[in-house]
Design goal:
The protein is 65% helix and 6% strand. It is mostly helical. The strands form two sheets. It has a three-stranded mixed sheet. It is elongated and about 90 Å long.
């Protein structure tokens, strides 16, 4: 489809392009825009029907949105913002220059301006910053007939109508009503007779990751957001939660790989962005790895008398790092899903110790045979290596499972305590263990 559009652009057949675009899905149109030159994006966007332009715009990448909004005329930009969902509009305002934000907000509808400014005032990554103010609210004294009339009148401007939210005269949230209940009950019944007053809600300042977890746990499609006085101020829907889960998972993966998280997709990042996201951790890990060198230097005399010990250092360090990494990733995932809490620390450590003993013994037996049959070392050297292997795996798994839990307890992101960080710690400890065991068993 993109190739076809590009060919039609070259042939300047804009009428055909308009006809094709207005039959396509909004998301698919937005995807086409990502691959078009900036010079053509404006021309093609202006071919879209006004009623779908805002929807297509909301599906675009943020950098495409910010470029396009500055190219549109002021009236076109204001029309787009007026038609966008308030949360999407607020996200856009975060990406464009402040002088453009000020100019556009002065022109948008007063109601839209109020909603956008309200969302921009909430802390980043809070429930308030990601909620939408386009929800269907009803009053408890309304009849079902009145409620259905209101839904028919206003549904096009609301994020969802599957769940309607019931408020009292002071806008306090007092219940919810499903659309199916409105349809299946008699029209003369009052809303308060059919509403569910067992309400699950979140506060505006709650962290977005916790909000996503609640919606996942309770299989909700939307959740109301209330302020400190329990007044309804917005809702968060399942599509927002999917974005949060993707964002948080990406952030965790980047931290686990010792990369400073970035919000842009890889292909949108320039070389300097990638460099800045990676170099701080590389420097930190390089400096911390100097301890490994210092340990080897300290035991240089011992190594000189048993040079063969040197050849097994990489294997011991790699095995320890891998063992610790396995535990840390498992625990980090458990922490993110709330399957593991701080009170479970001893239970987790005891389980990992038992796993480590089994894994260590298996590796030691296999390695002992290899050392004697293939490497042709003495039994005493093989014994030193294999005992070190068992101890290293046990220590690595204890560190790998406990550090993420401790990090979360003191307020750090557990993902920081992932493979690169733990490997550096385990490398140093495994060397100390190795040389201590060698010293005692080989009399170095």
């Amino acid at each position: 489809m993109l190739k076809n559009i590009e060919n039609l652009i070259e042939e300047k057949k804009y009428a055909e392009i308009k006809q094709i675009l207005n039959k396509m899905n909004d998301y698919d149109i937005a995807e086409i825009f990502e691959d078009l030159p900036t010079t053509e994006q404006l021309k093609i966007f202006r071919l879209l029907q006004k009623d779908i332009a805002a929807d297509v715009f909301s599906y675009m990448e943020t950098d495409t949105q910010s470029k396009l909004i500055t190219l549109l005329s002021e009236k076109e930009a204001v029309d787009i913002i007026n038609d966008m969902a308030s949360d999407d509009a607020a996200d856009l305002m975060d990406e464009i220059p402040a002088n453009v934000v000020s100019r556009l907000l002065n022109k948008v509808d007063p109601e839209a301006r109020r909603d956008i400014n309200g969302l921009l005032n909430y802390p980043d990554d809070s429930a308030g910053s990601i909620m939408t103010t386009e929800y269907m609210d009803l009053k408890e004294e309304n009849t079902i007939e009145d409620a259905i009339k209101k839904i028919k009148r206003e549904y096009d401007d609301k994020e969802t109508i599957d769940i309607c939210f019931v408020t009292d005269k002071s806008r306090k949230l007092i219940g919810t009503v499903k659309l199916k209940d409105l349809v299946l009950n008699d029209e003369d019944k009052l809303i308060k007779e059919i509403m569910d007053d067992d309400i699950m809600s979140v506060n505006t300042l709650m962290d977005q990751e916790k909000v996503a977890q609640i919606i996942q746990d309770y299989d909700l499609t939307s959740i109301p957001v209330v302020d400190s006085e329990n007044k309804l101020v917005g809702i968060i829907t399942i599509d927002d939660v999917i974005d949060i889960i993707e964002e948080e998972a990406t952030e965790d993966i980047e931290k686990m790989a010792a990369i400073t998280p970035t919000e842009k997709p890889y292909l949108k990042l320039n070389i300097l962005d990638l460099y800045k996201s990676r170099i701080p951790w590389l420097l930190l890990l390089m400096i911390s790895a100097t301890f490994t060198g210092k340990i080897i230097q300290h035991y240089e005399a011992a190594l000189a008398s048993y040079v063969v010990l040197t050849s097994f250092i990489p294997m011991l360090m790699d095995t320890g790092g891998n063992a610790g990494g396995q535990s840390s990733v498992t625990i980090i995932r458990g922490l993110s899903l709330n399957d593991i809490e701080y009170k479970d620390t001893l239970k987790v450590i005891w389980k990992e110790i038992r796993v480590a003993v089994l894994a260590g013994l298996t590796l030691a037996v296999a390695n002992f045979a290899k050392l004697l049959l293939i490497d042709k070392v003495t039994a005493s050297v093989a014994l030193v290596v294999c005992i070190t292997l068992i101890v290293t795996v046990i220590i690595a798994k204890i560190i790998g499972c406990s550090l993420p839990i401790l990090a979360k307890k003191i307020g750090f992101d557990p993902a920081v305590m992932a493979s690169p960080f733990i490997t550096t710690i385990v490398d140093a400890i495994s060397l100390i263990v190795y040389f201590q065991i060698a010293t005692h068993l080989l009399g170095l």
